[in-house]
Amino acid sequence: MRASYLFGLPASACSVELSWTLESVPFRPREWKAFQFGELSPKRVVASRDAASGVLDANGSARFKVELPQVETASALCLHAVGRVLDVGGRPVAQELSVPVDPAPLYLGLRAGAERLAGDTPGTRAGRIIAGQPARFECVAVQPDGSPAGLDA
Known about the structure:
The chain is 0% helix and 37% strand. With 153 residues, it is mainly β.
């Protein structure tokens, strides 16, 4: 963390604290809108840590190490961090930051197949599943940035 006063001087010797929350969020890359990623009824994952505190150095800086817990989830995660600095008068100034966290190197997506199967009734829509009839699904493996994962991934 780094803090400075309004006119640019470092906010040295001010108290500082950092707290954070890690929570599950849907993985929805724009390029794969038609696909469902993760569990259909995902468990909500939430982990948090109370504020760690310190004092800003002569440069108005402080370092905090954030160790994220291992979580079992098929969802993407988001780290929400809040840093607070108390000026010499005790007034707090806060800044928030949200950062995506990917617990796995790739995500699997599934959608009802867009191609019609032999014997489809004329007028039925592609991608619609009818009970008792064959169904086709498409599966993709996608990297956290939304690009397709290689076959060796």
